[in-house]
Amino acid sequence: MPHTTLQQFLPALRSLNPGSQLTKQDVLTDTFRIENEGRLSMYYAPHNEFINRNAKIVIVGITPGWQQMKTAFEQFARSHSSGETLETCLKEAKEAAGFAGSMRRNLMDMLDQCGIPKALGVTSSSDLFKKDRNLLHTTSIIKYPVFISGKNYTGHQPPIDRSPLLQRYIYREFPDELAQITSSALIIPLGKVVDQTILKLTEEGKLPHHTLTGFPHPSGANGHRIKQFQQQREQLQAGVKRWDNETC
């Protein structure tokens, strides 16, 4: 049975025009709003409803940004208009929206340099977003898109630990999601905020998975990502090898 939040927004999802390029004015509306908390607003997006339970790699961001949200809605509308099942609509929205845009290219380059393709027996990390998508699960510690005064929430202002809304999703919804994924999977947190959150959850015994710490956020807005990655690369490569040796 689909998640109750999905059921709530399903009629509005199915009414989207499959041929339109969506804008913030189309979907950052009361129709898709889940909750407000001060200047924070959380909205629905369909792509994180699909869970790849057999994934070997789990890449975790903070919260879907506007580009991911837009891509997820547009892909869901196209899939629905083609007569696909609800599960296929959600799966295709996930595949289209997961770290969409230039961020995906940056991410694939870093995954390649860390040795992920060799550990998985694939040619390139780009295959994880194409023919070998069955090996990958993408998600966020905050399942649905969050905006602060209309801009993407980055995890800093307000701090996560000062928001009851965000804490509810991070410390309840997120562990419940990962509990459905095989414990031998490698979790790759993107950036310090996600790193620290997953470390806390692991220490509390809520995440039994292996974690690759120190991975920079691949967003183009992170101007320090190349330097950060160069500093962390050997540690990241060693972490991938250790996971590969322990799970093979």
UniProtKB/TrEMBL annotation:
Ranges of residues in domain Uracil-DNA glycosylase-like: 50-232
Name this protein carries in UniProt: Uracil-DNA glycosylase-like domain-containing protein
SUPFAM superfamilies: Uracil-DNA glycosylase-like (SSF52141)
Pfam families with a match to the protein in the record: UDG
Source domain of life: Bacteria
UniProt cross-references to InterPro entries, sorted A to Z: Uracil-DNA_glycosylase-like (IPR005122), Uracil-DNA_glycosylase-like_sf (IPR036895)
Gene3D superfamilies: Uracil-DNA glycosylase-like domain
